[in-house]
């Protein structure tokens, strides 16, 4: 059965929303409604949207702000505007903000149909285009999570482009907080399997004695408490992607069964002898050294090679600092709308502090800092709103530092050079008397 396209409708007029919904549902589209930009952003974050239809005149944050946000963070998403205040200048502003077309209220059902079909046709043509801003390629995934322009980031996006449309097993490596799950989601949602399930499992968060049953399912009576037959995460992800985070924490018994699933494309539920075929892509992630775990007999070597058909190394934030301004802008938009109902800015000095810091907690730490700064800010975020640990933990150059006495000597020499040897003028500049200056010159 052909799946319906998802259309997000944004308007503060409930009557218009209901009218649009009735028309579009009769055309076999699936719709989501939002009465504000803030509500729309929540829907866009959690739901795959094929078309955005928005009004312009709305309280607090208007539709133009939403269009600009969507154009930057969802560049392949077609956008259609409905407005009751048409004008030449308004139309130009709408098109500049990334909309494909706009409808003037009131409009007929047929006019709506034609505009929607045009938007979808235009959206398909845009999918083949490269995203460029300021001459630098920038990648944003379908869920508005991954963003960057650094060379390290581009290497990741290149691999994502190569693997997104096949079901090769992928291992994502990187420190905690670097965004390994975001890479997995980007692979899934940017490829041809995006309409299929994406199931994320944190292997380290499930007790060892339950992990096997949770992954592969179980039958009634398999163990105490197994009162019914139950599918596992593999069955839930059928046809799509299963993301296994912290794979290094999985016990050896689960690793053995996982290896068989990857090799044979079939599994056996706990307590059953019947095998079931599975058709999924597995993406695993780890922040530990699996090769050392192999030496320590904690991880199966054959499973390691089965998982690393494609390997992606996600660099820490300290190695991609040119991405910090983009990430900051993203989090400012996210939490500005959530907490302040508006879009916030940051001063250059505050941004410079963020760029100097080494971010041991990576992107997760940066997001927490921005979240706190937005809460503490009354408007523009300055250095004052940043934590003291960032302001004073600065990486100084690895050079020798002159003593205070040496610096004083060099400064007095500079002043004397400026006054051409005039000690009276030099003493005035230094704000000391001539006797003190003579003593220092000795």
Top keywords for this entry?
alpha/beta, Rossmann fold, Helicase, Ruva Protein, domain 3, 5-stranded parallel β-sheet, 45% helix
Report on this model:
The modification 4-aspartylphosphate is found at residue 55. Residues 6-120 form the Response regulatory domain. Helix 13 crosses helix 15 (362-376) and helix 17 (404-418) packs across helix 18. The chain is an alpha/beta fold and 442 residues long. The protein has 4 domains: 6-126, Response regulator (Rossmann fold); 147-313, Rossmann fold; 320-392, Helicase, Ruva Protein, domain 3; 404-441, Orthogonal Bundle (Arc Repressor Mutant, subunit A). The strands form 5 sheets. Strands 2-1-3-4-5 form a 5-stranded parallel β-sheet, with helices on both faces. A 5-stranded parallel β-sheet has the order 11-12-15-10-16. It contains 19 helices and 16 strands. A hairpin with a 2-residue loop joins strand 6 and strand 7.
C-alpha Rg (nearest Å): 29 Å
Strand order across the largest sheet: 2-1-3-4-5
Tally of discrete structural domains: 4
Low-confidence stretches: 125-144, 394-398
| Multimerization status | single chain
CATH homolog superfamily of the largest domain: P-loop containing nucleotide triphosphate hydrolases
Tally of helical segments: 19
- The helix/strand class is alpha/beta
User: What is the CATH topology classification name of the largest domain?
Assistant: Rossmann fold
Under the CATH scheme, the architecture of the largest domain is 3-Layer(aba) Sandwich
Q: Give the overall silhouette.
A: flat
Helix content: 40-55%
Q: Distance between the terminal alpha carbons, to the nearest Å?
A: 94 Å
Average pLDDT for all residues? 84
Number of strands: 16
Give the C-level CATH assignment of the largest domain: Alpha Beta
- Residue share in β-strands: 5-15%
Largest sheet: 5 strands, parallel
